[in-house]
Structure formats: C-alpha cells, structure tokens
Amino acid sequence: MAAPTLQQPSFLLANLKADSTTKTLLQRCQDLVKIIDEYPAKELHSIFPWLVESVFGSLDGIIAGWNLRLLHSRSHEYNTAMEFLNPSGPMMKLVYKLQAEEYKYEIPVNYLPGPVKACIQEGVLPDCPLFHNKLQFPLSGLLTLNLALNPFEFFMFNFAYCLITPKVSLPKSYHSTDSAYFVLVDTYLKYFLPSEGSVPPSPFSDSRGSVTAPSPRSSTVSFAGYGVHSPSLLKHHIFHQPSVNADPAAQEIWRSETLLQMFVEIWLHHYSLEMYQKLQSPQVKLALLQYRLSMSSMPCQPHAPPGSGTLHTYQEPFSPTEEHVLVVRLLVKHLHAFSNSLKPEQLSSSPSAHSHTHPSPLEEFKRVVVQRFVQQKLYLFLQHCFGHWPLDASFRAVLETWLMNTRCCRWESFVQENLLMYTKLFQVFLNRTVRTDLVNAKNALMVFRVAKVFAQPNLAEMIQKGEQLFLEPEHVLHHRQPRGYLTPSQGGSFLSSRQRVMTDMVFRVKSHVYALEGQDCQYKQMFGTELRGAVSQRLIQIIAQARQTAKRISDHSSEVAANKSFMSWFGMGSSELNNTFPGAEPEESGECLKKTHEFLDRALENLCQIFKLNQGQLTQLISNLGSSQDDGNCKQLPDCIQGENGLILTDLGRRQILSGLRKFDIHYQGDPELQPIRSYENALLVRLFYRISSLVNERFGGHMNALCSRPDFLGRLGRHYLADPDSTAKLKQSPLSRRTLERNRQPRVSLRPLASYRTILLLLLFYVLGALLSFGPVSSTLLILTGGFLYGLLMTLFGDKLKTH
Predict the structure, then answer these.
(1) For residues 135 and 145, is the Cβ–Cβ distance under 8 A?
(2) Which long-range contacts link 339-342 to residues 24+ away (Cβ below 8 Å)?
(3) Beta-ladder partners of 105
(4) Helices marked H in 307-436
(5) What angle do the packed helices 322-340 and 375-388 form, to 10 degrees?
(6) Please, what is the Cα angle at 654 between 649 and 657, to 5 degrees?
(7) Alpha carbons 308 and 516: distance in angstroms, whole number
(8) DSSP structure string for 501-552
(9) Which pLDDT value is given to residue 103?
(10) Is the pLDDT of residue 313 over 90?
C-alpha cells in the first residue's frame, strides 16, 4: 500500500471497514501501521473504537473480531496479531498517541461486572476507584449510564472482557494456554508489572506533562492506604464522585494499576446470588462496623484489609470456564512473582514508619498488590468455584490456582492475612473429596497435591497460630492494650512493644476474617476436634478404601490380561472382556490404577503428618479394610432397601459405589432381542433372525404362553426352551424395574444365538465332521435338532438335582 493521503475521518473509517472484508490480516495490519504513524490523533480518534471492536470483538459477542482465544501458534496469522498487539507494538502506540489528548470512549454500564453494575443502579459509588469520576449521566435515567474511559482504560477493558464474552463456542480440542490471548495476557503482565526493572515509559505525554486521568488518589494519602475502604456504613452517592487528582509520583505506575484493576474487576468480581445476599446482610455490615469502631482507639492501627466497606455484589448465575480459571491462575502466579521481587530492605519497613529512604512507587505497589487489590475478590471467586464446579478432573485448574496462594507461606504474616484461604477452602475441598471418585488417577492426584502443599514444614503450626489469634477473646485483647507505647529510653519496656505486636497480629487476623465472612460467621477450626475427626474417620477411610479398590482392580486387570486368548474374538474368552464398556476411560487402565495407589499412599502419609495422626491406627485401618475385602465383602451388593419397584440405593450404598468398595453386577436389562450387536455376532444374521423370530412370536405367542403356563412336564420343557431362567436372579442382583422384568419374561422364540460366530464355527465343524462320516446336510441337521431336544429333555428331568449338587 502506498503512503496514504490524509482523508476525512469518515472516509478513512469507511475504507478500513471495506478492507476488513477483502484483505488478509497481514495486509490490514501493514496498512494500520502506516496510518498510525502518519495520521494525527484527531483523525485516529474516530477509528479507535471500531478498531478495538474489530480486534477483540463486540461486548455482546456478536462480532468475533480476530478470535484471539482461538488463534494458535500453528496459524499463519498468529505472528501478525502478536506483533500488532505487542506492548511496544503499533496498537499500543495508537493508545499512547490518543492518551496524550483528552479523548474519552464510552462503555455501557450493563457490561460491567454484576457487583459494580448493582452499585451504580442503586445509585451508589462502586468501591473500586477505577470507576470513579467516569460516570456519564444521560437524561433518560440511570439504566442507560455509561462510563467514559481514557484510551488505555478502554483498550484494557475490551481486552479483559474478551475472556468472558458470551456466545464464543470453543472446540473440544481447544488448549487455552497455547492461544494468542493467553500469551498476550502473560506478555502484558510481564511488561506492566515487571519483576525486575521498571515499567517502560510511555512514548507520548500530554502538554501538561502528566498522563490524562490516572487512577484517582488523594495526594495527601500515602500509597499504602490506597484501596482501603472507609469503615463507615454511609454510602457515597454516585452524583458525588471524587475528583481526580494527578499525583506526580503515581505517573510511573498508573498503567500498571489500571491494567491490574481491569483484570481483577472483569475476571474476579463475580459472585453468586447466595454470596450477594450474604454480603448484603445489614447485620454483617453493622457487626463489622461495631468491631472496627471498638478497635479505633488503638494507637498505630494497621491498615484495614480490602473489602471492609459496604459490598454491593449482585450477579446473575456465574459459571467460569476452565479457560477463565487458567487465565486467573496466570494472573495470580505473576502477581506473587511480582510481589516477591520486592527488595529485601523494603520487606521489613512499614509504610507508616519514619524512614529517610523513600521507596519508589513501584516498590510500594509490590508491597501491597496482593492484599489490597486481589485478596478479597480472589477468595470469593475460588469459594464460588469450589462450591459449583463439577466433581470431575477439570477441577484441577481451580485447585492449582488455590494451591498457588497457599504455597506462599514463607512468612507467618502472609498466612495470618490469608487465613481463610487455607482453612475455609480446605474444609470445602474436604467436602468435595468425600463425594469424588478417588479410584480415578486424576482425582487421586488432586488429593495428593493438596496434602503435599499443606504438609510443608511449619505451615500447619502457622495456621494453628493464626486460628488461635482469631479466637483471642475481645476482653483479653482490650486488657492487653497499653495506654501508650513508650520506648525503654522513655521509661517503657520491651513488654509493651511485644503486646503491641501481639495486638496488631490479632487485629490483622480478625479484620481479615470479618471482612470476608462477617463478624457473625461460625468459624470452624481447621485443627479443631470436629474437623480432625472428619479427616481421621471419614476422609482417611475413604482414601484407604479407594486405595484398596484400585489395587484390587489393578491386580484383577493384570490377571484378565494374562488370560486373554485368541478365542475371545469368537466370544469364547473371559466374559468380562466381552462385556467391557467400549467407552471406558483410560484412567481405569492398570497403569493408571497403580498411580492411583501411589498417590493415595503418599496422601495418607501427608495427612497423618498435617493432623498429627497415629501411624499405627492408620496401618490397622488399612489392614482391616484389606482383610474384609479378602473375605469377600467386595462381592456383596451395595447397601439397598427393597422398594415397590425393586432395590433402592441408600446413602451408604452410594458411597460404597463411589469409592469402588461394592458394585452391582451390570447386565443388559432391556429386550434381549434388541441389545446392541456384539463384535462376535454377524450383523446381517442378527437382523434376519430377529425378523423371523418376531413373526413366529407374533403368530404363535398365545400358544407358547399356554404351553409354558402348564404345571406338568410339558410346561417345564416349554419353559426350558422359551423362557429366560435367570430373570428372577437378575431382579435380586440389580435395581431392575419389575414392569421391565415382567415384559421380558414373556415366552418367546429366540434365534439370535445362531448369529454368533462361535455358533456358526461350531456348526461348520459339525457339518464337516458329518461329511467325513458320510452324513448329508439333512442328516446332520436332524442329528443336531435331536441332540438339542435330548439335552433339553435331560435338563428338564434332572436340572433341579444338578443345581442342588
């Protein structure tokens, strides 16, 4: 494309829209690079919203854009998109070029996360300062409110929203971690939240020497207090939005703050209706306020955790996808790396302490990034996932996101400030585990991973200490509080300093729990008697049962595989091989079951270490389970009660099936003539014999019923040939409907056994033997029919005696 001549914005936009349908992505990006370089911001302003929508898609999902979530490195368009959207690429250059001016771009409030939208629709200013001073009030009413965002905020909002856009169907073979979107998230995080060095400066700045509309912050408040909400229950009305004060010290990291807040608000700020109702409870808010006011007399208070104000969190039913969770995991992983890169001399310094050294805004940001920006919303997001995620192996993505936080236990203060992330979520995981099939290797691996992380050195002791601090009585806390903190040189003692540290630790833990659960929460100790009993008497027993079941199935599979022969192709091998479900999971193979046994073994060891359980009792429990299974308990039916239509499983029976301890003998319970065609049957003959049998049964069904109803010898002989002798036994071995059973017990002629390759082979061998003995086909057929009749006659006369013996 030749160097473009300057055109009116409307013509420029029209030409770009026309090119989008005729040119390749590479050609369009080359044109855009030249346009961004050569056109002034005034002309670029009109095409920016369309360009962002054409890249990331529309917010309602109707326009797909470049499909970044489906674009992988194998695609020839991958490199083109990555170069264009790189943090130092042409698209970001356009953003900075527009950022230097006072351009604003509108986002409808309806596309904001549910809690934020609920705040605004109630006429309340959202807690997140990202949305302050940006509301546009139309004359038509609150429901059509818009947010006016600067170019960088507008770009990041659309980029973040792309992850949760509805109407985007992903293929079954989709791997989100290989997509262009996932890689771009990682690239933006490393660029704007660098673990080493500083954020590269913007190539453009406005005439005032400061960036337009950074995140609002009062110049009189230190950064460490940023993000802390007022304890007051009074709501700030949206018509009284705080003004945006440009803090020169904040200009270095305003893009980092904006990116992080956009990601957190769009990806994590989603709660269920139950959580909304819980957090909206006036009693919870009032209790938290009273507690904070009662502690307000403490000198040198530590900073309150995020989310300690009024929470407005209503959201329609929200179900995050596995891709969503994987991106959140990437965010959390990078934030921990970013926070842990804080310089050692900055770790011990307090933001409020008098110090001659002034850390950079980026270093201050690293200190508070997890606690101030992420902690509350991530906890509620994980709690929602734990409670609503299916009981399958896809939960691994949620699990690893959780464990990534619990592994950061190098400092006791971190454990105290994130106590619920350890204790409450462990208890929810425990409830999931006892309802999960632990014979599956992937599920067993998740139990092992959790037990391994919580068995880290000193972690259990840190959690116990955090729980003790939370349970510290209020009156004792006030009694310990000294009237003033004096240094030894001023006549004080080190004891008062120790009391101050203790009081601060108690306040930190209580503030964390009350902010997330409310002061009226019924806290259940992770190392209390109740939970310890649940672990030792329920969880460990279920793990031990699954471990024994996996070992038994693995050994049995090895035996069956060793006995497999060529004749199984004809249906003459093991019946279990022929009845194997064709869609069986690969996790049920012998090799995976050996891994299950190993994972559960190590999980039991770690759980005993965490909860200080007696190893001898565990060994005795496993020994008792093994001996009971060896005595034949594994062959018993699951616990059932007799109902009107057959057997009904009890809760105990369901747990026995889930853990693999007992099972029903699975049989085909429909019409025997209509069961699926087996691999050892000829499909053409099955269908032919079914038609012949149906005609005979329809024509002579009444006569067969009359014959089989007779109590004499002829009736018994008819029942031998025309009825299923095992139907009554099947009723006792499986929860089979009596109506289905009665329908299938009607006397009938069945020619389907003649379609089996085994039967065909035997008949051919018999006819060949007859030919060798000079018997013709008719004579051989008569001999076969005579032999079959005599066999039936003998079984009718002596069958009962043979069964007795």
Answers:
(1) yes
(2) 339/366, 339/367, 339/369, 339/370, 340/408, 341/195, 341/196, 341/366, 342/366, 342/367
(3) 149
(4) 322-340, 344-347, 361-368, 375-388, 396-406, 412-417, 419-433
(5) 150
(6) 115
(7) 8
(8) HHHHHHHHHHHHHHHHH-TT-----TTSHHHHHHIIIIIHHHHHHHHHHHHH
(9) 92
(10) no
- What is the chain's Cα-based Rg? 36
pLDDT band at 724 (very low <50, low <70, confident <90, very high): low
93, 32 Cβ separation under 8 angstroms: no
* Residue 613 backbone phi and psi in degrees, to 5: -85, 155
Beta bridge partners of 146: 108, 136
**Helical packing angle, 713-722 and 777-804, nearest 10°:** 110
230-248 pLDDT, tens per residue? Answer: 333 334 444 445 444 445 4
Angle between helices 254-268 and 361-368 in degrees, nearest 10: 20
Largest CA distance in the chain: 125
Residues 6 or more apart whose CB falls under 8 angstroms from that of 384 comprise 270, 271, 272, 275, 318, 320
CA–CA separation, 320 and 780 (whole Å): 70
Answer for the pair 314, 273: CB distance below 8 angstroms, yes or no.
yes
Which residues have a Cβ under 8 Å from the Cβ of 84 and sit 6 or more positions away?
Answer: 29, 32, 33, 90, 91
State the DSSP code for 632: T
Closest-CA residue to 404 (of 508, 328, 323, 322): 328
Residue 700 vs residues 258, 409, 710, 716: alpha-carbon distances, Å: 83, 79, 16, 18
CA angle 443, 445, 446 (to 5 degrees): 65
Which of these ranges, 344-348, 372-376, 579-583, has the smallest mean pLDDT?
A: 579-583
- Long-range (24+ apart) CB contacts under 8 A made by 615-623 are 617/536, 618/540, 618/544, 621/540, 621/541, 621/544, 622/544, 622/547, 622/548
> Which residue matches tokens 């920016």?
48
Distances (CA, A) of 670 to 642, 693, 696, 744: 21, 17, 20, 7
**Per-residue pLDDT, 578:** 39
C-alpha–C-alpha distance, residues 475 and 481, integer Å = 10
- 452-487 pLDDT tens trace: 999 999 999 999 999 999 988 865 555 554 444 444
Tell me, what's the pLDDT at 573? 47
Q: How far is CA 728 from the centre of its chain?
A: 45
* Contact of 467 with 525, CB cutoff 8 Å: yes
